[in-house]
Fold this protein.
Amino acid sequence: MTALSSPRGLALVLVVLGIAAMFTGSVLVFATHEPVWRFLIAAGGIVQFTGWLRHGAPHRGDSA
């Protein structure tokens, strides 16, 4: 993994799902004015953060 590499595998899935959940929650909060959708936004942020942590974690078997 280099400093400029893109997430792959599970990390990519988590980042994309997090973005999708946050976007969906934002649209629903705007459209319905129900604050309960903010939990979806927060959950999406946690999922995306987990994906970035997984992407930045050192991998076993790397030579560098």
In short: The chain has a mean pLDDT of 87.
